[in-house]
Amino acid sequence: MAYTDFRGLAVILQRGPAFRAASTGALKVGDLVDKEFAQADASAGGGSAHYVCLESVASGASGLFAEWAIIRKPDTPSSTGGDPTTGDHSGALGDTLFLSTTAGAAVEVIDGDGIYQIVGQVLSTQDVMLRPSHAAGRFFEDCEKETGAKTLDLADSGKAMVCTSTTDIVVTIPATATQGIYTIINGSQDGDHLTSVSPNSSDGISGWDFSNSDDGDATNTKATSKAGDYLTIQSGGLAGGFMVVTGRGVWAGA
Question: Looking at residue 253, what is its pLDDT?
Answer without folding.
Answer: 85
